[in-house]
Amino acid sequence: MCKRRPQCPQLQAIYYDDPRGLRNYSETGLHSLDALVAVGAVYAKEHPEFFPAEVEKTRADDVASMFFTSGTTGNPKGVVHTHRTLLDRARAGSDFDRLTHREEVLAYLPPAWIGQNIFSYAQWLDCGYVVNCPESASTVAIDLKEIGPTYYFAPPRIFEGLLTTVMIRMEDAGWLKRTMFHKCMDLAKRVGPALRDKKPVGTLDRIKYAIGNLLVYGPLRNNLGFSRVRVAYTAGEAIGPDLFNFYRSIGLNLKQLYGQTEAFLYLTAQPDGEIYSDTVGPACPNVDIRIAENGEVLFKSPGMFAGYFKDDTKTAEVMTPDGYVKTGDAGFFDEKTGHLKIIDRAKDVGRLNDGTLFPPKYIENKLKFYPNIREAVAYGDRRDFVAVMINIDLTAVGSWAERNNVVYASYQELAGHPLVYDIIEKNVAEVNRSLAQDKMLSGAQIKRFLILHKELDADDGELTRTQKVRRSFIAERYAPLVKALYDGSKEADVATEVTFEDGRKGTIRARVKIRDMQTEPVPAAMGEAA
C-alpha cells in the first residue's frame, strides 16, 4: 500500500476481507471489513436521517456502476452504466424467463464481471429471489450441490470444466458403469434435446430415455448440482456445439444469450422451445440489431452504456453516426430461424490463401470440447492452412497418465510425451472429420499442431482476466513456434518468461514437437454443392 501512495495520492483506506498474512502488517489506512461495518453502524445510529436522505438524492440517470471490458484486443475500458440501464435490462431478462421471488441463485462468479452483476444483483432487485453466496472459492462445487439453484449462469469454461470432471470419473469407473454411461449418452445425444424442446420423439425412444434418466441423466444432474435448475444460461464467449448439446441432452434447460458489457449484457436470448446450438437467439424486447456491410453486429438498446470512463475518443469510435454501438463481433441472422449467429470477433475472422473462411474461435471451441484439451489457439488467416497450439488439461491427461503408468515430473514433461501427442492427434482428427462436413469450413481443417510446454496464464498476459485468449499477443510471444508450424519444421526451441505465484519471474526453455495431420476428404455431394 505504501508503495502505491505516490501513484494514488487520494487513496485514504483499503479494507480487507481475509486477515490471513496481515497479523504483523502495520499500515495507516488498512482496515478489516468488520471494522468498516462497525463504524457504519455507529454512524447510522448517530445520523438516522443520513441513508434516506442520500437515497432521495439519486436519480435514474445517475451513474450506478462501472464495469471493465476484458481487454481481449487492447487495454480494458471502464464502461459506465446508470441505474436506469441496469434495472431496465434486469427487468427485461426477468420477464423473458418468468423469474419470480422463488428462484435460488448461486453468486460465485467474479464480482467485477457484468454477468455476475446482472444475475446475482440487478435481477435480484427486480425479482427479490434468494441469492446464495458460497463459503469460499474452493467450496463452490460442494455449495452448488447443497443449494441446488433453480436459475444458473456460467461461462462456457465452467461447463467445460464440469464435463472434464465427469469424463475423468467415467474413465476411472468399472466396465459396466462405463458401458452403460456411453450407451445412454448415445441415446441422449440423439433424442434428449428434442425431448427437452417438447418435439416429437418415438415411444420406444421415450421409454429408453426415461430409463436412462433414472439410471444416468438424473444422478448426473444431481451430482453436478443441476437437479432443480429451471433455466440455465451460458454467455461470455462462444460455446462449442458439442458441449452445449451434451448438457441439453441430459435434460438441462441450457440456453445461450449474447450481450456486451456496453449493453448490460442482454442483446439476444434463446426462448424456450427455440434452442439451436449455433445461434444465440433473436433480439431481446426493445433491442434493435442490424448487421453492417462488413458483417459486424451493431445494436441500440435501453441498456446502452453512458460511455467509457474518461475516454471520449474510444466512446466515439464504437458509435455509428446514427447512434448504434459497434460490438466488434461478426455475425448474421439465420434465414430459417431468425436467430442471430455469431461467427467470431470481426477482426479475428479471416480467410486462408485459397479463400476458405477461417473462424478461429469456432475451431478452438470444437477442440476444447474434448476433456484432454483445456485451451487451443488457431492460426490460418492469410496462410496456406490452419495450424493450432494446444494446452492439455492437466487434470484429465494426468488422470490418464496415472491409469496407464505414464511417469512424469511436470506439466512440461507430460505435454511433450509421445503418447499424449497420440491422444491429442485423435481429438484433432475428429475435429477435422466434423469440419469436413461443413461446406463453408471443409477447407479449414487442421494440418499441423503442437502442444505448448506451459499452460496459458493471465499473469503472463496470454489470457484476459476472464480467461479469453489473447491470440495476437500469443502469436508474438511464441513467434518461433508459429514460424515452425508453417515452415515444415518437426520441432522448435523456445524460451518463455513466466510469472510465479509469489510474483518472481523465471524462464522455461523447451523443445516443442510438431505433428502433421491428414485432412478428411470433402463428401462428393458437398463438393459439387460448393
Describe the overall structure.
The protein is of the alpha/beta class. Among the domains are: 1-57, no CATH class; 350-529, GMP Synthetase, Chain A, domain 3. It is built from 17 helices and 22 strands. Strands 18-19-20-22-21 form a five-stranded mixed beta sheet, with helices on both faces. Strands 7-8-9-10 form a four-stranded mixed beta sheet, sandwiched between helices. A hairpin with a 5-residue loop joins β16 and β17 (357-358). α3 packs across α4, α6 (156-172) runs parallel beside α12 (394-403) and α15 (471-477) crosses α16. It is globular and about 75 Å long. It starts with 13 loop residues before the first strand and ends with a helix. The model has no long low-confidence stretch (mean pLDDT 90).
Show the helix and strand layout.
Layout: E1 14-16, E2 30-32, H1 33-46, H2 50-57, E3 63-68, E4 78-82, H3 83-96, E5 104-106, H4 114-127, E6 130-132, H5 140-147, E7 151-153, H6 156-172, H7 175-196, H8 203-224, E8 231-234, H9 241-249, E9 254-258, E10 268-269, E11 288-291, E12 296-300, E13 307-308, H10 312-318, E14 325-333, E15 340-345, E16 350-351, E17 357-358, H11 360-368, E18 373-379, E19 386-392, H12 394-403, H13 411-415, H14 418-436, E20 446-451, H15 471-477, H16 479-487, E21 491-499, E22 505-516, H17 524-529
Parallel strand pairs: 1-2, 5-6, 7-8, 8-9, 19-20
Antiparallel strand pairs: 3-4, 4-13, 9-10, 11-12, 12-14, 14-15, 16-17, 18-19, 20-22, 21-22
Helix pairs in contact: 3-4, 6-12, 7-8, 7-9, 15-16
